[in-house]
Amino acid sequence: MNTNLILSIDRKDTADEAMQTVDLAIKHKSRGVVGIDLCGNPLKGDVSIFSAAFSKAKAHDLKLTLHFAEVPASSSEAELKTLLSYRPERLGHVINVPDDLKGEIMKRMLGLELCLTCNVNAKLISGGFTDHHFRYWKDKGCPIVLCTDDVGIFCSPLSNEYLLLAEHFGLKHKELAELNLGAIDVIFGSVKEKERLRRLLAPFCR
């Protein structure tokens, strides 16, 4: 199994602290750092102050994944358009997304990091697992990356998240494998690594 590292900028960080994180990522690219994440309390911070940090990350070929529209308070059109202007490859949560920006996300075919147990147990969505917005996004053409966010708090390993998809959305073995196959398109890995993973998964998609 090949693994890489993504360094995180917290929403409460200052612009200088964010730049320090990016500089650290650039310094250690040769040791497996492949991207930058924006995370933290969605009620805190002003994401517009990170423009220079994310621009520098992109200039040095670091990939971006951003927590996006996690709660209503962090889902203003201004904030979401700012985040999309940073040209991320993946978005996390995507719960409170206005219809016009859903269209933009689909147009770009951004990877979507969806977290069933987290969103249900933290009451970030209304209802239970069957009401999760996986149902909306599953046929929209965007690669879906099933995530936990996180197993240490919600005690649901990734294998259980796949079980939940099977139980509540009726996904069969082949469909779960195909979901994984599509997710490979948005991993922060090399072309060679993506090809290797596709070869491994292909037999399970037949």
Protein architecture, described:
With 206 residues, this protein is an alpha/beta fold. Helices cover 43% and strands 15% of the residues. It is built from ten helices and six strands. It has helices spanning 15-27, 51-59, 77-85, 99-108, 116-121, 134-137, 151-154, 158-169, 173-183, 191-201; strands at residues 5-10, 33-39, 63-68, 90-93, 111-114, 144-146. The chain has a six-stranded parallel sheet. Helix 1 (15-27) links the parallel strand 1 and strand 2 (33-39). Helix 1 (15-27) packs parallel to helix 2 (51-59). The radius of gyration is 17 Å and the shape is globular.
Tell me, briefly, the overall form.
globular
- Residue fraction in strands: 5-15%
- How many DSSP E strands? 6
Class per helix and strand makeup: alpha/beta
Number of helices: 10
Work out the oligomeric state of the chains in this entry: single chain
Report the radius of gyration as a whole number of Å. 17 Å
Please describe the biggest sheet, giving its number of strands, its sense, and whether it closes into a barrel: 6 strands, parallel
Ends distance = 23 Å
Low-confidence region ranges: none
